[in-house]
Amino acid sequence: MWRPAILLFCLFGLPALAETATGPRLGAASNFGQGWQPEMLDAAEALGVRDLRDAVYWDLVEVDGRRRFGTFQTRWPDLLAPRGMGTSLTVNNGHPDHDGGVTPHTPGAVAAFAGFAAALAAQFPAADAIEVGNEMNSAVFTSGPMREADLEGKARYYTALLRATHGAVKAERPGVRILGGAAHSIPLAWFGALSEAGAPAWMDAAVIHPYTTPPEHLRRQVALLRSVPGFETMPLEVTEFGSEDAGTAAAHFVTNYCQMALSGVTRVVWYPLNPRGDGLVPLIGADLEVTAAGRAYRLIAERMEGRPVADAAPDPFTYACRFGDRALVIWGAPREVTLTGAGVRALDATGAPVAAPRLSREAPLVIVSESAPVVLGGNVVLGPQAVLADSFDQFAWPGRPGDGFERFARQGDEVIDWELRGGQQRGGVPWTPYLGSARDGLLRMGADWFLPARPEAGPIEVVHRWTAPEAGAVSVEARLAPAERSEDGVDATLTLNGRVLEARTVTGPAVLRHDLTLAAGDRVELSVGPGATARGDVTAFRLTISRR
After folding, report:
1. The model's pTM
2. Domain assignments of the chain as residue spans, ordered by start
């Protein structure tokens, strides 16, 4: 069985996939297979969308035992090639004539499913990939025995579909890519189960939908995925990601695209192209106007897609991607930005000019030049970095370098070390990697959240300790926000060399802030434990230490 704690060492010997990476191919998730919208296809073409992710549905094509591609919903891919567009087609749904319409699981139904996928590949030259399944690690898009199975059983059912589809499609059109994995989030346990079931042999690229991963941590989680046997160098595609916040969707698009590029992702598909009624921000609105997310799409296509990408981050508190030599995406801890030289401009995530550029954690800058290379430290000068340590930016998995904090749990005087957990290894846990402990099954932590515990042996608190590398005046700021479902909040204590600076019960969003003058070797510690109960105590947090 694949175990992340054992195979974590593999990360140090993996090839640096991002060293030769380019800006991933851009795509958009449409739903022409559910309802034909010619005006939306025109709008997509006008925006410059050239790659769609969509479906042609099995039960609409095969009726009374015969295949017919006779309606717009079953023929729409034929309209793409004249427009210079292509598509990947997702095959996921069952058919009422096979296994009662649930996810195919018997040999005959599996073969019929694969045969339909091959028929799609043969029918539509514009389709260059078949994506087998959609979020198959969830219960939402599966049914029947596969939905009821445990994670290993789901992986075996899915691998049977993948293997049959690979064989049938490749026999019809060998050049069509088979996209597998079909994962919501980045759950290492799911990919471990797929590895054990033999799934990697039957896919050309693995698929993730990283809705639950902050862009700043995507590379770190993908690096863990690369430790799973069979996925070490597998091409990786993000066939869905998006945002529910219209005000930040463009920024979300640009920051994710940057980090996906550095992760070696080869294709990035924004969800959705057009309104789907689920609250996610489309590229094109119901009025056929381009949204802020759509303007970000256009900016990325013009300045980043297909260009060599390099990590340009100057420190742990700043994130930056250099695309070619004429575009720099950058965001992070606030500080001034000075642009020098003719033709160097700062844009926001929608491509609009920024008159007075300044770094922020929320809004990336896109710095471009038409006349000379964009050079950080040359014609792009950053103000002094005030941040000395930040719990989110410097979060590192066990055994990885770069963490500015000692992180551990503590029960009484006993220190408890964190251990890597892959995500989705059992019910009720996150579907992304996180830190846990054998001491208590509820005790856990991620980059910007934690859950303390209260077993019978006594409460367990979550501790972050920072040791000052040199003397100086600093500001310490701890932001805590227990979930609304927390029954009695959490107990937070901030100390300096063991002396309590502040101790309080936190029941809602709160900030603990202290200005300190430190000597080299002084220790600042934030410890947070449960109240009388740990029920509902999942707590968002960030601890930042800055120069004054």
Report:
1. 0.95
2. 22-306, 318-383, 388-547
